[in-house]
């Protein structure tokens, strides 16, 4: 996918392709449109690093009851 904007829209933003990917990944994750793993890949970083970035921006991690139950099953299986 390629996205382009007229120069007058991005002038003065110091917007690199890396920043644009990060901003898009954060936005899609914050809107609950993609998973943490997919957002981290889109941003080009490890999940732990992406989570730290979300924390810096005060964007909450999405974690619901079904995910907790799945994690607990994995923990019980490894005991």
Task: Tell me, rounded to a whole number, the average pLDDT.
Answer: 90
State the total count of DSSP E strands: 0
Roughly how many Å apart are the termini? 44 Å
**Secondary structure category:** mainly alpha
Helix/strand order: HHHHH
Kindly describe this structure.
The model has no long low-confidence stretch (mean pLDDT 90). By secondary structure, this protein is mostly helical. 63% of the residues lie in helices and 0% in strands. The chain is elongated, with a radius of gyration of 16 Å.
Short characterization:
With 79 residues, the protein is an all-alpha fold. Helix content is 63%, strand content 0%. The protein contains 5 helices and no strands.
Provide tags for this entry:
single chain; 79 residues; mainly alpha; 5 helices; 63% helix; elongated
Question: How is the secondary structure organized here?
Answer:
Elements: H1 7-10, H2 17-30, H3 36-43, H4 47-56, H5 65-78
Helix pairs in contact: 2-3, 3-4
